[in-house]
Write a structure and sequence with these properties.
The protein has 2 helices and 11 strands. The strands form 2 sheets. It has a 6-stranded mixed sheet. It has helices spanning 15-41, 97-100, and strands at 51-55, 61-66, 68-70, 75-81, 87-95, 101-107, 112-116, 119-126, 133-141, 145-153, 159-166. By secondary structure, it is α+β, with helices and mostly antiparallel strands. The chain crosses the membrane at residues 27-49. Keywords: Membrane, Transmembrane, Transmembrane helix.
Length: 167
C-alpha cells in the first residue's frame, strides 16, 4: 500500500522525524548492549576488570580489592601478610580511606585499634611461629568519586591503591 494511502486523518507525520526515531532506536539498542556487556565483565564492580591485587615492594603485604564500587554497596578488602614478627604488627590504613568508607566489620578483630587524624591503626599481637595472616575488612562507600588510599604494615613500604565509587 502506498505511503499516501496510509495517512490517518488529523495526524501529520514527518518522514524526517520518523527516520530520526528509527535511528535513535538502533543506537539506543547498541548503547544498551554496551552497558550490559560492561556490567557483565565487571567495569562497574565485582568482575574481571574490577578485581585487583597489589603487593608492596618487599612482597610482605598483599591487598585484594575492587577498583570499582557503588555507593552504599558493601565490599571486602583482604590484607595478607607473610612477614610475621614476634610482638606487634601494626597496620596503618590512611589516605582517603576514612573519608570515603565506613568500616562495618574486621575479621579477625584486632587486639587494639585507634585512629590518628585521618588514619586508622589496627594492632595485632603476634607469636614467634605464627603463619601468614589475612585480615578482611567489610567496608561501605559513603561518598562517590575517586579515592586514593594507603595500607602499611609496621614501618614497611606502603601499598597505594585507587578506587572509583559510582553514585
Amino acid at each position: 500500500m502506498p505511503r499516501e494511502n496510509m495517512k490517518v486523518p488529523g495526524i501529520e507525520e514527518s518522514q524526517r522525524f520518523l527516520n530520526f526515531e528509527a535511528r535513535f532506536h538502533k543506537i539506543g539498542f547498541v548503547v544498551l548492549l554496551c552497558i550490559i556487556s560492561l556490567a557483565i565483565v565487571g567495569v562497574f564492580s565485582g568482575g574481571y576488570f574490577s578485581d585487583s591485587v597489589k603487593t608492596n615492594t618487599t612482597g610482605e603485604v598483599t591487598l585484594n580489592f575492587e577498583r570499582f564500587g557503588r555507593l552504599q554497596t558493601e565490599f571486602k578488602l583482604k590484607i595478607s601478610a607473610t612477614d610475621q614478627r614476634s610482638g606487634k604488627n601494626i597496620y596503618r590504613i590512611g589516605g582517603d580511606f576514612n573519608s570515603f568508607y565506613e568500616t562495618a566489620n574486621i575479621w579477625p578483630q584486632p587486639d587494639s585499634m585507634y585512629s590518628k587524624g585521618e588514619e586508622l591503626y589496627l594492632v595485632y599481637n603476634t607469636h614467634e611461629n605464627q603463619q601468614d595472616t589475612s585480615i578482611w575488612l567489610l567496608v561501605t562507600p559513603v561518598k562517590p568519586g575517586s579515592a586514593k588510599s594507603v595500607i602499611q604494615l609496621n614501618s614497611g613500604p606502603e601499598i597505594d591503591f585507587r578506587q572509583f565509587i559510582y553514585p
